[in-house]
Design a protein that fits this description.
The chain has 246 residues and is an all-beta fold. The chain is built from no helices and 20 strands.
């Protein structure tokens, strides 16, 4: 594995360092500054602006609200999420699905727990767009979990017709690695960074240990080695390392 060791930089964000919002119907863990949680050292990782780990109680959700000029990715981890937006889309996003919404020049949408009895847990991710004020768009794909078993499964990309299209030079990859297995990930662009979020299990990335919901941001390298010490599910988000949006 080749790395650019002289310039490699690593930022580790343990799960318990995240911000918390608890509204009763919603328990949200914020990796980056969001809502009432503000940390000047946690504004963004390049184009990655928001990574929220949301648990929504049965029958509850986010009422209609606006967005513009943001790429918004939703990944259910448990349960089903109901989506409606002003472009006419009404969908249920199930576990195994990945959804993206390019807010473009502006739209409104709502998100609710589709179940009246069970909670939903999903990742809400915002990426700053490459081009502003595009036509709003929506896309959703069901991905086969077998496609990421001890393999890398691309779910979001600007250049892959099997993945969701994103208005940014960003690639999202899911992987489910058995204990004592390892995988190598090669950057699509050397100038990008990768923000790795460990959904479950235990793993090391380039020798850095991660437990459930820990995260690691890495720049200045062209590849990663991921080794699972326990069965591990990871989301890798490769993004351009643009400056802070503020």
């Amino acid at each position: 594995m080749e790395t650019l060791n002289k310039t490699t930089q690593v930022i580790k964000h343990p799960a318990n360092s995240r911000g918390t919002a608890n509204f009763g119907w919603l328990l949200s863990k914020h990796t980056f500054s969001f809502g009432r949680y503000y940390n000047p050292e946690r504004i963004n990782f390049g184009a990655l602006r928001v990574l929220n780990d949301d648990i929504v109680e049965a029958g509850m959700g986010f009422g209609t609200h606006p967005h513009d000029n943001m790429e918004i990715v939703s990944i259910p981890l448990e349960g089903d999420l109901e989506h409606q937006d002003s472009t006419g889309n009404t969908e249920v996003i199930k576990t195994g699905d990945v959804q993206i919404m390019s807010a473009g020049f502006g739209l409104t949408h709502s998100e609710y727990n589709h179940s009246k009895t069970d909670r939903v847990n999903f990742l809400q991710i915002w990426v700053l767009p490459k081009e502003r004020d595009i036509e709003p768009r929506y896309q959703q794909i069901t991905f086969n979990p077998a496609g990421r078993k001890n393999k890398l499964q691309t779910v979001v990309a600007p250049d892959d017709d099997k993945a969701l299209w994103i208005n940014q030079d960003s690639w999202f990859t899911l992987t489910d690695i058995d204990a004592n297995h390892s995988l190598d990930y090669s950057f699509h662009r050397e100038s990008n960074g990768v923000y790795a979020f460990l959904i479950s299990g235990e793993a090391t990335i380039n020798g850095e240990s991660l437990a459930k919901r820990d995260a690691l941001g890495i720049t200045g390298t062209n590849s990663l080695t991921i080794a699972a010490s326990k069965n591990a599910e990871l989301l890798l988000m490769e993004v351009p390392m643009i400056k802070s949006p503020f």
